[in-house]
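Quick one:
INPUT:
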């Protein structure tokens, strides 16, 4: 689904079964998101740890609708 942050378009994939939201560092930088430090960690379903390098708190828009999006920032995200 195409959404916008500060007029910058980006594609978003939603996983309603996920326990945490993730964003690639390259995508966060591309849309001008402020990446904050975090102590949070996360693992894949198979137990492998994700390399979390920060977190973001954004307001994304689609048409006239806005919604809050908080996510952990990762360098690699293969979905």
């Amino acid at each position: 689904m195409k959404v916008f942050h500060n007029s910058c378009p980006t594609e978003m994939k939603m996983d309603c079964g996920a326990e945490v939201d993730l964003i690639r560092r390259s995508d966060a930088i591309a849309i001008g998101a402020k990446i904050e430090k975090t102590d949070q960690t996360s693992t894949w379903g198979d137990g492998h740890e994700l390399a979390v390098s920060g977190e973001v708190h954004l307001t994304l828009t689609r048409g006239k609708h806005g919604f809050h999006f908080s996510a952990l920032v990762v360098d690699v995200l293969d979905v």
